[in-house]
């Protein structure tokens, strides 16, 4: 077993990277596979997503309780990995709707818990190497963002060149690398080392209310981002008239800026403070989404993508630290709340985009997303004022 703590940190991030790549190859691809590969109606996507996300939310809550109670993390990652292997193998052997809605939902739903589990363990890994937790959160967020740059592109390229079921073959190969890293690099006895209870522990009604206010903030801003993310490709191509390759280029610019910005968040927190930085980021999101709704040229699209990467890179790193600050003695629970909130917001954003665009336009969707981001700013400002009054 590897003993050097810095080497362990590197391998931990590599493990997180491959686990996220595996998820990123499947999550955005399943809708395409159901409609184009299995010739199902689009509403089937909602059924699959609802079942898989409900299972992931339940797994995140269950695993978080185990982690906060001092349970070993190694087997929890193994359960998620086994679920991914099961689902990929099952769909490879029998690519049918019922296989997707049974073993596919079960396996991929459980496997999506791996990211939350890894982020819950990240604080302990940082402590072992004497690395600031906020900085390591930024490293983890940059790792996941990089994985999301690679995963979807790889799956759609393979599907286009080799067939729709070939993505699951690729998923199996990637999962074998994930398996090897999990088996060789993650310490068997690693735990999050639960802190003993105290009278000042964040289990009071006030602290719980503050945590749920924080979750409401994350929900609103994540919903605004998900609505924008879903609507922009169709807005650019159908309503603005940009070429078909434009949305992909905009996404690449956004993600590139996002990864760079994530590494700046420890500096931002140290010099501005977590809440001020988050409020500024939220206001930037409101303005950016408004600007995106007014894009008319290719250059404006690229500039808008860079601004989107700026605000989302800051939010991606600041948001999880903000949630964790409300439950210092139950970090795994706070991390699970964060990831579950992201998943629920993503699940609800899709139908909302469809309904608004059907009745009005994709540009209207982006306007509504900006209003939802403004709600997030109001919630955050209110929570900050309450915290000052309580102090």
UniProtKB/TrEMBL annotation:
SUPFAM superfamilies: MFS general substrate transporter. It holds the Pfam family MFS_1. Keywords: Cell membrane, Membrane, Sugar transport, Transmembrane, Transmembrane helix, Transport. The chain crosses the membrane at residues 12-31, 43-64, 76-98, 104-126, 138-158, 170-190, 211-237, 249-270, 277-295, 301-323, 335-358, 364-383. Coiled coil: none annotated. GO terms for cellular component: plasma membrane. Residues 211-391 form the Major facilitator superfamily (MFS) profile domain. The keyword Plastid does not apply. InterPro entries: MFS (IPR011701), MFS_dom (IPR020846), MFS_trans_sf (IPR036259). It comes from the Bacteria. It is found in: Cell membrane. One of its GO terms (molecular function) is transmembrane transporter activity. It is a multi-pass membrane protein. Signal peptide: none annotated. PANTHER family: SUGAR EFFLUX TRANSPORTER A-RELATED (PTHR23535). Belongs to the major facilitator superfamily. Set transporter family. This is MFS transporter. The lineage of its organism: Bacteria, Pseudomonadati, Pseudomonadota, Alphaproteobacteria, Rhodobacterales.
């Amino acid at each position: 077993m590897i003993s050097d703590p810095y080497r362990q940190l590197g391998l931990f991030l590599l493990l997180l990277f491959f686990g996220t790549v595996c998820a990123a190859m499947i999550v955005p691809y399943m809708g395409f596979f159901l409609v184009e590969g299995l010739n199902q109606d689009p509403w089937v996507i909602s059924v699959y997503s609802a079942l898989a996300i409900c299972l992931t939310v339940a797994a995140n809550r269950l695993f978080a309780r185990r982690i906060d109670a001092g349970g070993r993390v190694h087997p929890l990652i193994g359960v998620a990995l086994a679920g991914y292997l099961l689902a990929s193998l099952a769909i490879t052997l029998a690519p049918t709707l019922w296989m997707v809605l049974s073993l596919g939902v079960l396996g991929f739903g459980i496997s999506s818990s791996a990211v939350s589990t890894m982020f819950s363990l990240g604080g302990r890994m940082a402590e072992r190497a004497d690395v600031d937790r906020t900085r390591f959160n930024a490293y983890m967020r940059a790792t996941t963002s990089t994985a999301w740059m690679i995963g979807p592109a790889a799956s759609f390229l393979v599907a286009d060149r080799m067939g729709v079921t070939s993505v699951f073959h690729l998923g199996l190969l990637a999962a074998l690398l994930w398996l090897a890293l999990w088996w060789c690099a993650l310490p068997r006895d690693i735990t999050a080392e639960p802190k003993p209870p105290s009278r000042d522990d964040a289990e009071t009604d006030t602290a719980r209310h503050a945590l749920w206010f924080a979750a409401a903030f994350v929900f609103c801003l994540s919903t605004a981002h998900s609505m924008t993310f879903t609507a922009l490709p169709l807005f650019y191509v159908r309503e603005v008239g940009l070429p078909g390759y434009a949305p992909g280029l905009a996404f690449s610019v956004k993600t590139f800026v996002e990864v760079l910005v994530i590494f700046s968040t420890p500096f931002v927190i140290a010099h501005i403070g977590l809440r001020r930085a988050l409020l500024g980021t939220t206001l930037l999101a409101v303005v950016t989404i408004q600007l995106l709704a007014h894009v008319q040229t290719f250059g404006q699209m690229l500039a808008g993508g860079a601004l989107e990467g700026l605000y989302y890179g800051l939010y991606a790193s600041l948001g999880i630290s903000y949630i964790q600050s409300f439950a210092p003695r139950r970090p795994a629970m706070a991390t699970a709340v964060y990831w579950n909130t992201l998943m629920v917001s993503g699940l609800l954003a899709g139908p909302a985009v469809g309904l608004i665009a059907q009745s009005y336009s994709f540009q209207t969707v982006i306007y509504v997303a900006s209003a939802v981001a403004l709600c997030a700013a109001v919630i955050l400002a209110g929570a900050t004022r309450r915290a000052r009054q309580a102090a």
